[in-house]
Design a protein that fits this description.
This protein has 353 residues and is α/β, with parallel strands linked by helices. The protein contains 11 helices and 14 strands. Helices cover 34% and strands 17% of the residues. The strands form 3 sheets. It has an 8-stranded parallel beta sheet with strand order 13-12-11-10-9-8-7-14. Bound molecules: phosphoenolpyruvate and manganese (II) ion. Residues 104, 130, 134, 186-188, 209, 239, 274 line the site of phosphoenolpyruvate.
């Protein structure tokens, strides 16, 4: 076990923690570092109950040294990871929130362009849209495939939005990596370890969605697979988990945001669309997600949700997206964060992917 002290913990606080460790019958090994002191705990009585030290003043975190994830952890990197993009002021993990909006699926060029225009006007910097869809029924719309990717590439050029889309398997991963700015790995694939390793060998940001029954540790370990292959740009996304509750499609677990931020330097955003499955819950839970400290949002927006080929029930209208942006802008300000305004520069002139 390792007790990591806060950067500015006093000598007295360090000493008090050491004394507590010794009084519990263990040995304390204070290890001063450049930024902070860590205190190793040894003893032959087996694992110590971390609760005894967790709440002491000056303690940042109590961790088991045998922790299976390392690179995603704040032990490895204390400061927040910020993911930026060439040719855009959009980012994740920065003071500006990363807002991702768009339809569940790309259905046609007209549909995608109509929605992209509206979300760009609302201030989003990232456009989402599925080209490869993980559908529960094999008979449900499976996505347009590469044609959908081409439409999104046109959207990037036309509106200056960065593109986020899901890769389902090895084959789509190669294509998605070619067209997208961020590769999404969906909830159903969160523990597809071979796909995670392949994504880790790419040099493109990965948005990793939480599996529908994944614990915090399983979520972080999935991200660790990607980092362990050398790709350090991972954005985590909470999208709700399965519970007994049946008034929503999933139960959005907002408490995972501060829990992740305590343990990991990676940015974490929230998807209230899949997290609730209900259009009327998207706005309130977007507000809550920003209030809880999320680094951004992923929201499904559709211009004609009643006829959407997937997830119409949870897709908000473009006008509702505008309202959402206005409201979260005010909430973000309380937390000294910012929700961007629409870009002013003509999109066509903007450089690069
Ligand atoms: C999606 O973003 O459209 C999606 C399928 O999400 P999830 O993997 O969270 O279900
Ligand atoms: Mn969807």
């Amino acid at each position: 076990m390792l007790v990591v002290m806060k950067a500015h913990a006093s000598q007295e606080q360090v000493r008090a923690v050491c004394e507590r460790i010794e009084s519990l019958g263990y040995r304390a090994h204070p290890i001063p570092g450049a930024q902070r002191t860590a205190i190793g705990v040894t003893g032959n009585k087996g694992a110590m109950e971390p609760g005894a030290l967790d709440e002491m003043s000056g303690v940042q975190e109590v961790i088991q040294v045998s922790k299976p994830y390392k690179l995603v952890s704040r032990d490895a990197k204390e400061e927040d990871t910020v993911i930026r993009f060439a040719g855009s002021d959009g980012s994740f993990g920065d003071r500006d929130l990363g807002v991702v909006a768009g339809p569940c699926s790309i259905e046609s060029r007209e549909q995608a362009f109509a929605i992209a225009e509206r979300v760009a006007k609302g201030g989003a910097r990232f456009f989402r849209g599925g080209a490869y869809k993980p559908r529960t029924s094999p008979y449900a719309f499976q996505g347009l495939g590469e044609e959908g990717l081409k439409i999104m590439a046109e959207i990037r050029d036309r509106f200056g939005l960065k593109i986020i889309t899901e890769a389902l398997d090895d084959e789509s991963l190669v294509l998605v990596a070619d067209y997208a700015d961020v590769i999404q790995i969906g909830a159903r694939n969160m523990q597809n370890f071979s796909l995670l390793k392949k994504a880790g060998r790419l040099r493109k940001p990965i948005m990793l969605k939480r599996g529908m029954s994944a614990t915090l540790e399983e979520f972080l370990m999935a991200a660790e697979y990607i980092l362990s292959e050398g790709n350090y740009e991972v954005i985590l996304c909470e999208r709700g988990v399965r519970t007994f509750a049946d008034h929503t499609r999933n139960t959005l677990d907002l408490s995972i945001v501060p829990a992740v931020q305590r343990l990991s330097h990676l940015p974490i955003i929230v998807d209230p669309s899949h997290g609730t499955g209900k259009r009327n819950k998207v706005l309130p839970l977007s507000r809550a997600a920003v209030a809880v400290g999320a680094d951004g949002l992923m929201v499904e927006v559709h211009n004609d949700p009643d006829h959407a080929l997937s997830d119409g029930m949870q897709s908000i209208f473009p006008d509702q997206f505008d309202e959402l942006m206005e409201e979260i802008r005010q909430i973000a300000a309380v937390l000294h964060r910012n929700v961007q305004r629409p870009q002013t520069q003509p999109a066509v002139a903007r450089a690069g992917r």
